[in-house]
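pasting for the record
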Amino acid sequence: MTALQHTPLHAAHLSLNARMVDFGGWDMPVNYGSQIDEHHAVRTDAGMFDVSHMRVVDFEGDAVRPFFLHAIANNVDKLTTPGRALYSCLLKTDGGVIDDLIVYYFSETSFRVVVNASTADKDIAWFQQLNAEGGFDLSIRPRGDFGIIAVQGPNAREKVWQVLPQTRAETESLKPFNAAKFATTPFGELMLARTGYTGEDGFEIVVSATHVEALWNALREAGVKPAGLGARDTLRLEAGMNLYGQDMDETVSPLDAGLAWTVDLKTPRDFVGRAALEANGSQSNFVGLVLIKENGRAAGVLRAHQKVVTAHGEGEITSGTFSPSMQESIAFARVPTQVAIGDTVQVLIRDKQVAARVVKLPFVRNGKTLVSL
């Protein structure tokens, strides 16, 4: 049996008596006590997550922009200001999703990518293959020397500035999906990116693995609550954000996973997977579901892989949970293309059909419920 990998914050999690679980081969905290309290801390104040299992990869070379114009589905020509970030899918030639990732632009010879932990090795191998086949001659450098802390919530940025006051002037006007690098701080070199996976404001902080625990402890002292994978999942689901391996994978087109907005089919560039996407089009709708209560009570909880029965054929829930913010059972589902927002469908829960309403995603953003109940 292969031993689980540890992030640089592993000892810090154990010292807080976190409940640890195997997450894609990494020993990660699912919660530190109350998952619900951790969820609400992010929605109302500030919480932080260890996301050091995700992989930072630096790309350098004269052809770095042409490489990404070919390699990913979104258009890196949108990136012209240093620090600007772009969310995209990395596709197979048949249009299936290898991974979803964020690309950061720093200069015409330097891009940075953050990829998912479970797909990191596969992603890097694919990048290296495309680099060799296309003759781009890039340096592709996985950065195992970094840790990453995501600080999220309405008070997240203020609390980060308490710990890193020297970054405030440059990041106070930083717009979402932008990042800034700092060469010297009390915690060494770091990058602050105004990105996240919760539907709240905040920063994702990339910092040296040797300094990440000191930064974590300083943020705790500033009142940022540690949060685990459990809260991260309910927060991202409320925020309408996909989870790789659950809502999409190599067998699923981004057009069938609610990610058409990340696919650039307007410009003529020939990116990997484009021909397949154009040939196949969208085969299904990706929607939100809210379980309809009976006499004020929910008849179960929506969960992944439950069957969805509609007037136009069957679908399937890809992610589901009980929403702490809404106090409702919610889910993402892939359903026939004829199913529309406002429709009522049936979900098979414990061999019983239960009614659910089709809604537009997301459910919750910036602490506000966006779905009328």
